[in-house]
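Q: What structure does this chain adopt?
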Amino acid sequence: MKQPLEPVSVCAECYSGNAQLRFREERAEKNGALLLLEKVPYYLCPVCGEETYDLDVEVFVEKEIEKFLEGEEKSRTVNVWEAMEA
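A:
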């Protein structure tokens, strides 16, 4: 990433510490075309299960989905973790 993810030290939901960095996939579909966003980083609270996303990651994911839904109907895959490093 251009700058490392801000570590989440306290869960906003239950105020527990030690959230764990995890990765997930996000998908969007349009007329049979698929946008697959791989390795979307987030922090998971081991106590209550709250998921917290870095603001830069949230903005990146939202923009990619918006571009896909408003643009060409072409399937593609984006590795978010790698894209954020560039």
